[in-house]
């Protein structure tokens, strides 16, 4: 028997068809067999407000699709230490959650995609990349000033070498200060006067409901975001076929294509999430000679010397099914322009 119903997810209405076994068939139940209560899908997440909000959107989407789900909070190395991420190492926010997934302590992991190392984790699969939030970096400043209004010597907090390098390259004479901790404590440093401004991912502020505190959202020409910024990776064990197909419902093809291209740049440069590498890809509409509209992938990337003294940039537009290849092409172009030397610059 075919049953059609409609499910609302992330504002998109999609039809799903479910085949139920015919009554009395092999999987049929008589009146005495209790209907089994589905055990909740356990979603592993960090405990920060941002992380639980992000994982909460996945939990809510699963529940809306008829699958009970709950959050399981996991402490990561990144939560236990306030040291710069560049010192604690790659995967500080994700390794403990992935280990819980491998160990069967949780069924799903939700990560900020940009925190994931580029190397795949054997046995795990990114089963869904939900629609991306705003990928841009944002300035939150005292007095609600935009970057160009900050006088030379203004203190700007960020510990991402990519942001620090691009801010130094702006030539505004800003004092870049290290910044770690959760979003709330970062914003608190502006409110209490310790810093004149901070730069954070706008996506994080949107997700925790504080987008109105943004003084300026940077055009990627000014500040190119981190590869995969604003996107989530929803991961499960690759042998869990049932979950792989349930989670696939949450996948957004355009976001996945863009992230594949951006992370391919990072992988080909053999750089990690703390490298001064920016990349942004967008699925854009183009028109062919016959006036037909088709979609293409636009990709821009840069590598900046940490002291801001030099920047190399490259961009390309190509077929959406060549996302990974386009990323490799851009990386090769950046390397030709001297990217390896800039990544090595300290
Ligand atoms: N490295 C920490 C981190 N990982 C993901 C986000 C924000 C959300 C996102 O980029 O998707 C942040 C904070 C920040 O960069 O300001």
Automatic annotation (TrEMBL):
<dbReference type="GO" id="GO:0004418">
    <property type="term" value="F:hydroxymethylbilane synthase activity"/>
</dbReference>
<dbReference type="InterPro" id="IPR022417">
    <property type="entry name" value="Porphobilin_deaminase_N"/>
</dbReference>
<comment type="function">
    <text>Tetrapolymerization of the monopyrrole PBG into the hydroxymethylbilane pre-uroporphyrinogen in several discrete steps.</text>
</comment>
<dbReference type="Pfam" id="PF01379">
    <property type="entry name" value="Porphobil_deam"/>
</dbReference>
<dbReference type="InterPro" id="IPR022419">
    <property type="entry name" value="Porphobilin_deaminase_cofac_BS"/>
</dbReference>
<comment type="similarity">
    <text>Belongs to the HMBS family.</text>
</comment>
<dbReference type="InterPro" id="IPR000860">
    <property type="entry name" value="HemC"/>
</dbReference>
<feature type="domain" description="Porphobilinogen deaminase C-terminal">
    <location>
        <begin position="258"/>
        <end position="335"/>
    </location>
</feature>
<comment type="subunit">
    <text>Monomer.</text>
</comment>
<dbReference type="GO" id="GO:0005737">
    <property type="term" value="C:cytoplasm"/>
</dbReference>
<protein>
    <recommendedName>
        <fullName>Porphobilinogen deaminase</fullName>
        <ecNumber>2.5.1.61</ecNumber>
    </recommendedName>
</protein>
<feature type="modified residue" description="S-(dipyrrolylmethanemethyl)cysteine">
    <location>
        <position position="273"/>
    </location>
</feature>
<comment type="pathway">
    <text>Porphyrin-containing compound metabolism; protoporphyrin-IX biosynthesis; coproporphyrinogen-III from 5-aminolevulinate: step 2/4.</text>
</comment>
<feature type="domain" description="Porphobilinogen deaminase N-terminal">
    <location>
        <begin position="41"/>
        <end position="243"/>
    </location>
</feature>
<dbReference type="InterPro" id="IPR036803">
    <property type="entry name" value="Porphobilinogen_deaminase_C_sf"/>
</dbReference>
<dbReference type="InterPro" id="IPR022418">
    <property type="entry name" value="Porphobilinogen_deaminase_C"/>
</dbReference>
<dbReference type="GO" id="GO:0006782">
    <property type="term" value="P:protoporphyrinogen IX biosynthetic process"/>
</dbReference>
<keyword id="KW-0808">Transferase</keyword>
<dbReference type="Pfam" id="PF03900">
    <property type="entry name" value="Porphobil_deamC"/>
</dbReference>
<keyword id="KW-0627">Porphyrin biosynthesis</keyword>
